[in-house]
Specification:
Layout: E1 5-14, E2 20-29, H1 35-111, H2 128-133
Amino acid sequence: MPTTQSITVKRTENLGNYSNKVIEETILLNEGEDPDEERRKLILKIERSLHEDTRQQVKEEIGELRQEKSKLNSELRELRERIRKYKTVLEMHQAFIESAGDILKADFDDNTTESDVDPLLDPENKSDSIIDTYDDDDDDDDDDDRY
């Protein structure tokens, strides 16, 4: 009567959330099969099975990350294009302001006389008459009697 041999392989994987995944499989060896070779095959089968869920989850995450990267790259291209357009508009506005400033300054210098300048805005005017002109109360000024 031939003897039957069996091989059992059991693996436990810690899932990291206080739980484990256990895979166990037993095979019966036929006469003439190499026990070491069959054991290696069974270990490989169990290892693949144990990590298949993790492998699939990683593949899905990689796919999601690639989609996110593509979306972010697209947004980055759009933002760079907007920045380029804004820089162009800013340069145009700066050139306009510079040319308008030169024109206004030249026009002001050509057409302005001393009588056109408001004495209150003239920083070099130190006249007391300016203060008296805008003074509502004549009782409190010491310099009122000079005029």
